[in-house]
Specification:
The complex is a heterodimer of chains A (443) and B (662). With 443 residues, chain A is an alpha/beta fold. Chain A is built from 14 helices and eleven strands. In chain A, α9 (202-222) packs antiparallel against α10 (225-249) and α11 runs parallel beside α13. Chain B contains 28 helices and ten strands. Chain B has helices at 6-18, 22-31, 37-62, 69-82, 104-108, 111-122, 136-151, 171-182, 213-231, 250-266, 272-287, 292-305, 307-310, 328-339, 346-353, 360-372, 376-387, 409-428, 446-452, 479-484, 493-504, 530-538, 541-555, 589-599, 601-617, 626-638, 643-651, 654-657, and strands at 167-168, 311-312, 324-325, 441-444, 463-466, 569-570, 573-574, 578-580, 586-588, 658-659. The model of chain B is unreliable at 1-66 and 519-525 (pLDDT under 50). Classes of the chains: A alpha/beta (443), B mainly alpha (662).
Chain lengths: 443, 662
């Protein structure tokens, strides 16, 4: 255990019981000793694609190392040895109800969402990224980073009776608390490299937070029981901010490779007009976040559920994503749908290029130390089924994962088995997750 | 109750991550201390209902409440013969299972379902064409029994007041509050992630407003910037209300300034102890040598990050079983965030101080004053953008830039503005609500007028323009909604019809069942026009039930292209814009559609009233609220649909004036 780090965690210590309960965290921080010959940490990213895939063009032929890439996955050919295609994983809990929403909010939780336009909203679980962040996020300036391209949709979906909040989030801190994603690259850049918590005023910020926390505690006594959970949400965010300030002070905590400057990237000017540029920028920021150890956990939504991004910028595609995903087996529509899927895969290939180009001190690449999950919460956008989900997992997770294979599980294997494996690889000790039946063997 | 610490979090999250069964969920609830008993009670609610029903069953079997012969003949038989084929336990299409209703009491206990049934049958949407149709007499008898049974139930008792969750400010309300408090001009809204929506589709819905950590970071950063902007501006006196002088020592002036600011920000009188604590922050700066104004920064920033500012706090009066009046200051806040999307002004604050605000006459006068105030534009903007979903236009929904280079972001903003100005006008001038759908005037600038082909409008500023025909006028034929409900490259009668049903009439269709082809395409339909394809699909009974309602509404609007320009031909062929509703009503084009909507204004009035009520209350509208909605619609009819009547009815209703402990 790193004693120096420990003492710097002043606020936690001051909170008495809190410090005692925080102990299990510290056991996972042994690598954070700056003097140790530390192995690079594992990074984890989950990339969500809306609206499913054209199933026949996605599915590879053959199994194991000796398989044939499919048409849609062909852009990943140059990375063939660095990822696995995962077949026949499913989200059983996401079957019922509606076409899209449960397949979005439930994608990383493996649970069924509560059907509601607001009252009693719950995804009934927590997403793997947020679980990882809750356990190990304290090691970096940002416990996790949630990115996307589309703001949460206006209004509710009257036709199915769900709030669109469900369609705009894959990250859930708690069953009733989705984590808002950022869509403006400039704001993400600033958050990492021009922190709005100015370094010279750290103590001032703490004094402000002390005061508002006191206010919140006072209010808790005046308001009703059921209002308290909203104030508790507030208090948790105040706490998260305090922790961030503490980390900014405790340089030793940022033991791996902390950088407060962005190597090779200038501040983006805002949200680009072109969707393709927008996606690239967000992926660049993700790479940067990993490279500089601002965070080790990110999620990215290429689009929200029922995404209406206009893909007419691709040759041969005329229309919006969701519109085309309802292909009704029409040959022309299917061809367009496939092109949209393939474009997404190209972006993933680009991300892998970037991660591979970054060499870490142990001689391996950033990709070697990462787990990049990419896929959708449904297989076919026409039928919305959460069986045999289209998924790939890139990177070796620091050596725990053997790549270059088409991993075909027995039909009906829970996708949450993959989550157990990913969480363990990341360093979270866990036996089960949602409906998991054991880890997915990837070693 | 201890604040959850990180390790609790981990325990909790692990627990939730493993929760798959009811028993584990209950264990998690025990871990999750922050979850309220109210919320827990929601989970056990079904059990409570069951017990209630059981009790009702006993009462029913013993008293004159027993099912009468009419129930058996007019309702049970009707349901058995005409509904259960598709709405039974085994095959609950559209999520409706009517098989579970055995008795009158059970039926009366679920008015929400039976409201839907009533509306569907009344409009001839159900039973769908192609199925065994009831005789007109049977339909009439069914409706005659069901109408009063669902509508009048419990409306004689005390009016419903449901618990409302504490609500943080939306990012627009936050911005408006900063503007009013600090006099700043920078727009900070985009620094925050967009707010989602819930209830009836508004971001004011308390349950869907969250505070993730990134928000707290931004609150702190933006507060610092905004306070800096105010203090460094040319008129810092708006904030620095008292300055040190020969008579007034700096600390006294600071105390006075901070106290006044906190009172405005917290929207209530502040306590001495609160100011004492803010003064600690002042002292912190002052003692290290910061000047007077600079030393105000920290306490002002703290005020703007306090939950007292970020949340609309309403104190609970403990141990009250019945609904009780909110405090006068809380009422002022309810009013101002409803009609100004921002904080109360001095007059509202004064009326609250003198406890006059609950007086219906005072409220009436305040509504009219507030709607005449320029700040009513904020209400019009926030409400309209969400009511019509126009916020998405130019954001997540964009016409293709190559196919429609004319549709610039500026034009999208103009299109949104047209609808906002109409809503503002109707409320400000107390016009009939029907003008929202059908008016002989609209609001245009040169760019939008040019888009519409209307001559004689010069300059970028919007003004009222009288219309010569019914191609425009009312929200349905505005470029905004028409573009919003199109695909990037083409129009969609289905999207448009669905939008009218969802947003205007409040009578949404269920989603298409899985694996049914969407209507406009399909393998065997090549070479047919869109209308021919759609009519082909309506031959399919499954599709027909909904598309008989949807398609005619959308086809009436085919005279407008994907960016809302009027057109008479598509591909060189004249457009057939005629249609027939399931009840046999025939109409033609947009003007015919406007007539139909006027004739069926009950749906619109109910829907519009429901939406505005939900927007004002910050929650969804439940069964218990239907009596209120009914009475509002009745009063609207008595007052020739005057818009301000609606607002007055809402703010003088118990749901608005009172609160109830959960």
């Amino acid at each position: 255990m790193n004693r120096k780090t420990w003492t710097l965690n002043r606020r936690t210590l001051l909170q008495g019981a809190g410090a005692a309960l925080a102990l299990p965290w510290l056991e996972t921080m042994s690598w954070a000793d700056p003097a140790a010959d530390a192995k690079p940490p594992v990074r984890m990213a989950c990339l969500f694609m809306a609206n499913g895939v054209r199933a026949d063009a996605w599915h590879p032929q053959g199994e194991g190392a000796d398989y044939q890439l499919s048409r849609t996955l062909e852009p990943l050919a140059r990375h063939r040895q660095d990822f696995n295609v995962l077949s026949h994983l499913q989200h059983k809990a996401c079957r019922g109800g509606d076409g899209h929403y449960v397949k979005t909010s439930g994608w990383l939780t493996g649970t069924t969402i509560t059907k509601t336009t607001g009252a009693g909203l719950s995804c009934n679980g927590i997403s793997i990224d947020q679980l990882a962040a809750a356990r190990l996020g304290h090691n970096t300036m940002l416990p996790s980073l949630e990115l996307g391209t589309e703001r949460v949709g206006t209004g509710i979906d009257f036709n199915v009776g769900y709030t669109r909040v469900y369609g705009g989030h894959v990250s859930w801190r708690a069953p009733t608390v989705p984590v808002a994603k950022e869509i403006d690259p400039a704001l993400v850049f600033d958050r990492m490299f021009r922190p709005e918590i100015g370094r010279s005023t750290l103590d001032d910020d703490e004094s402000v937070l002390d005061l508002v926390r006191h206010d919140a505690w006072r209010l808790r006594r005046q308001i009703s029981q059921h209002d308290r959970r909203k104030l508790d949400e507030y208090l948790e965010s105040v706490r998260a901010l305090e922790q961030r300030i503490e980390r900014a002070q405790a340089q030793e905590l940022e033991a791996w490779n902390p950088q407060d400057q962005a190597p090779g990237m200038t501040r983006p000017a805002g949200i680009p007009k072109s969707h393709a540029d927008h996606v690239r920028l967000m992926l660049d920021l993700m790479v940067l976040a990993f490279q500089t150890d601002q965070t080790r956990i990110t999620t990215f939504m290429f689009g929200n559920s029922v995404s209406t991004v206009n893909f007419s910028f691709l040759d041969g595609v005329r229309g919006a994503h969701h519109e085309i995903s309802h292909h009704q087996n029409d040959a022309e529509k299917l061809a367009q749908y496939e092109k949209i899927n393939r474009w997404h895969v190209e972006q993933v290939a680009y991300l892998l290029d970037r991660l591979k180009a970054i060499r870490e001190p142990d001689g391996q690449t950033l990709l070697d130390h990462s787990m990049i999950l990419f896929g959708s919460g449904m297989r076919d956008g026409n039928s919305h089924d959460p069986n045999n989900l289209p998924l790939i997992l890139a990177g070796r997770g620091g050596g725990a994962i053997q790549t270059g294979r088409h991993v075909v599980s027995p039909a009906g294997t829970p996708m949450t088995n993959l989550f157990v494996t990913m969480l363990r690889t990341f360093g979270v000790e866990i036996d089960t997750f949602a409906d998991s039946t054991g880890p997915l063997e990837l070693g | 109750m201890a604040l959850r610490h990180a390790a609790d979090d981990a325990q909790l999250t692990q627990c939730w991550s493993q929760a798959g069964t009811a028993s584990i969920i209950h264990e998690c609830m025990d871990v999750d201390e922050s979850r309220s008993s109210w919320e827990k009670s929601r989970l056990v609610m079904p059990l409570r209902w069951f017990l209630t029903l059981l009790l009702a069953w006993h009462v029913v079997s013993a008293t004159a409440w027993a099912d009468g012969p009419e129930f058996d003949r007019d309702v049970r038989t009707f349901v058995r013969n005409h509904c259960l084929d598709c709405h039974s336990a085994g095959d609950a299409q559209a999520d409706v299972n009517l098989e579970r209703f055995e008795t009158e009491a059970q039926l009366r206990a679920d008015t929400k379902t039976w409201e839907r049934v009533y509306d569907q049958v009344r409009r001839h949407h159900m039973p769908p064409p192609g199925s065994d149709a009831p005789t007109p007499e049977a339909r009439e008898r069914f409706l005659t029994w069901l109408g009063p049974a669902i509508r009048n139930q419990n409306c004689d008792g005390p009016p419903a007041v449901l618990p409302v969750l504490v609500r943080r400010l939306t990012r627009s309300e936050y911005q408006n509050s900063l503007v009013d408090l600090l006099g700043i001009t920078t727009d900070y809204r985009e620094r925050f992630p967009a707010d989602g929506a819930g209830g009836e589709g508004f971001d004011t819905n308390a349950e869907t407003l969250f505070i993730p950590p990134v928000l707290m970071e931004r609150y702190l950063a933006v507060a610092r910037e905004a306070v800096g902007e105010a203090l460094e501006s040319e008129q810092p006196d708006r904030v620095v209300t008292v300055r040190p002088s020969r008579e007034t020592p700096a600390r006294t002036a600071a105390r006075e300034t901070i106290g006044r600011f906190a009172q405005r920000a917290y929207r209530r009188p502040v306590e001495v102890e609160e100011i004492d604590r803010l003064m600690l922050l002042y002292d912190r700066s002052a003692t290290r040598g910061d000047g007077f104004v600079d030393s105000l920064r920290l306490p002002l920033v703290a005020v703007l990050c306090s939950p007292n500012f970020l949340f609309r706090i309403e104190n609970e009066v403990k141990d009250k079983k019945d609904a009780y009046d909110v405090s006068p200051h809380e009422l002022a806040v309810r009013l101002s965030y409803f009609l100004w999307a921002g904080p109360p002004d001095e007059e509202l604050f004064r009326l609250a101080e003198s406890k006059q605000l609950h007086d219906p006459k005072v409220l009436d006068a305040q509504v009219r004053r507030m709607l005449a105030d320029p700040r009513a534009r904020r209400f019009a903007t926030s409400f309209t953008e969400q009511w019509l979903k126009l916020r998405d236009l130019g954001e997540t929904v964009k016409p293709d830039t190559k196919a429609f280079p004319e549709f610039t972001p500026e034009l999208a903003a103009d299109a949104r503005q047209e609808a906002i100005l109409l809503v503002e006008h109707v409320f400000r001038e107390n016009r009939p609500l029907s003008e929202l759908l059908d008016a002989d005037y609209t609001f245009l600038n040169d760019r939008l007028a040019n888009h519409y082909g209307i001559a004689g409008v010069d300059g970028a500023s919007f003004r009222r323009v009288d219309l010569k025909d019914r191609r425009r006028g009312g929200v349905i034929t505005m470029a905004g909604p028409l573009a919003l409900t199109s695909y990037p490259l083409r129009t969609s009668p289905v999207l448009r019809g669905v939008w009218v049903l969802d947003q205007i009439l409040g009578t949404p269709s269920p989603p298409p069942p899985p694996d049914v082809p969407q209507l406009e395409e399909g393998p065997d339909l090549a070479g047919l026009s869109l209308r021919e394809r759609l009519s082909k699909h309506r031959e399919n009974t499954t599709c027909a039930a909904c598309h008989q309602r949807i398609d005619p509404l959308g086809f009436a609007l085919e005279g407008y292209d994907a960016i809302g320009r009027y057109r008479e031909k598509v591909g060189g062929k004249p457009i057939d814009v005629s249609g027939e509703l399931p009840d046999g009503t025939q109409f033609d084009g947009a003007s015919g559609l406007k007539d139909v909507l006027r004739q069926q204004s009950d749906d619109f009035l109910r829907s519009f009233s429901t939406r505005l009520l939900a927007y004002a209350l910050g929650r969804g509208i439940e069964n218990e609220d239907f009596c209120l909605v009914d009475s509002i619609v009745k009063r609207l009819r008595e007052s020739d649909l005057k818009a301000q009547t609606l607002v007055v009815e809402i703010v003088t209703s118990p749901a608005f004036l009172k609160r109830r402990n959960p």
